[in-house]
Amino acid sequence: MINPVQQNENGIKCPWLMYTLTVFSQFSLINQGYDMGASSGAILLAKDIDYLRLTQIWKQLIMAGPMVGAAGFSLIGAFLSDQYGRKKGLLIAASFFVLGYIVIGSAFNRETLFIGRLLIGCGIGCASANTAVYVAECSPSNIRGRLIGVSQPFMTIGILIGIVISALFSYDRTNGWRQVLQNCMHSFKVDS
Questions:
Q1: Higher pLDDT among residues 183 and 4, named by residue
Q2: Nearest to 119 by CA among 96, 152, 147
Q3: Is residue 13 in a domain?
Q4: How far apart, in whole angstroms, are the C-alpha atoms of residue 54 and residue 93?
Q5: How many separate domains does the chain show?
Q6: Is it the case that residue 16 has pLDDT exceeding 70?
Q7: Mean pLDDT of all residues in the chain?
Q8: Is 91 a domain residue?
Q9: What is the rounded CA–CA span in Å between residue 66 and residue 176?
Q10: Which of 16, 18, 100, 138 is the most buried (most CB within 10 A)?
């Protein structure tokens, strides 16, 4: 049987399983960072698409959509976390991310694109309400701060990946925006 908690030379327990759990639970933050990094490049690609008809107001609404969803759903996510547990809360967040990316990938007008962005925001809010609490509850006190503190590097990695993906799809003026915004679903959806 594998012992998930082993002691180092100082007698301090170092649970390698906790590090693995932390990495996988932080994928929601990579996803959040990806959305931040990729959306600015995607909106530049989508601005000239005829069927989206993006005015300046609609560009702002689409960019702000995730923050609106996150603000509202962080409170609901906290309630769901208390009712059903942190792990199920992260699964709900992952479901919102996947649903949002499916809606974005099939968007045929600006309203549908906005709804997809709102759904991603709901995933961001739910994940924000659950990720750190889940890691804190599962981790021993001697490494709890270290495990919770890795959230910012994971988000920063997500931003970097989003910017790189935006640059890679910048050649496609027709569907590049769709590929950029939908690409995260294929790359990182292994939450919990």
A1: 183
A2: 96
A3: no
A4: 28
A5: 1
A6: yes
A7: 83
A8: yes
A9: 20
A10: 100
pLDDT at 47 over 60: yes
Both tokens assigned to 116: 């997809």
Q: Which residues constitute the domain of residue 157? A: 37-188
- 74-83 contacts, C-beta under 8 A, 24 or more apart: 74/125, 74/126, 74/128, 74/129, 75/125, 75/129, 76/125, 76/126, 77/125, 77/126, 77/127, 77/128, 77/129, 77/130, 78/129, 80/126, 80/129, 81/129, 81/130, 81/133
Q: What is the full DSSP assignment across 87-152?
A: HHHHHHHHHHHHHHHHHHHT--SHHHHHHHHHHHHHHHHHHHHHHHHHHHHHS-TTTHHHHHHTHH
Residue type, 70: A
Question: CA-CA distance, 140 to 180, in Å (whole number)?
Answer: 38
Position 117 scores a pLDDT of 92
The answer to whether residue 72 is domain-embedded is yes
Q: 72: how many CB neighbours lie within 10 A of its CB? A: 14
128 within some domain = yes
The helix or strand, by DSSP H or E, that contains position 49, with its residue range, turns out to be none
Query: In this predicted model, what pLDDT tens digit does every residue of 110-129 receive, in sequence order?
Result: 999 999 999 999 999 998 88
Tokens of 148: 């919770």
Residue 14 φ then ψ, to 5°? -125, 90
pTM of the model: 0.81
- Residue 13: predicted pLDDT: 59
